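Task 17 of the worksheet. Students: predict the tertiary structure of the chain below and write it out as structure tokens. Keep your answer in the requested format; marks are given for formatting as well as content.
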Amino acid sequence: MTDKTGPHSRTTGLVKGSDHEATGSAAGGQQRIESREALGQRLANAHAALELAGVGCWDWEVGTTQVAWTATMEKLWGFAPGEFDGSLDAVAARISDEDLQRWQDSVKATFE
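Model answer:
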């Protein structure tokens, strides 16, 4: 939040899960760096837990034909490590003929 009513502007940054409020760009910038580092560590921990549990995870940038998969996801779908090229076409190629139309309809319904 920026308050421009006084002689000096004030920038306030809140870090989720924290009661601390930073005033000024230096303190706020440091908190953002620490927050990003903490987020990165939480994501790494979550990723490790998923891998240990044998659960695959994927991310699709909607509007593109590209998806990102974890190594476990590749393994679950029968790809060798690094073999998956990240395309929806590569996913479709692994789906049986009897399930392909239903999968395509599900993807299409995502946008309707």
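Marker's comment: Residues 2-51 form one domain. The longest strand covers residues 10-14.
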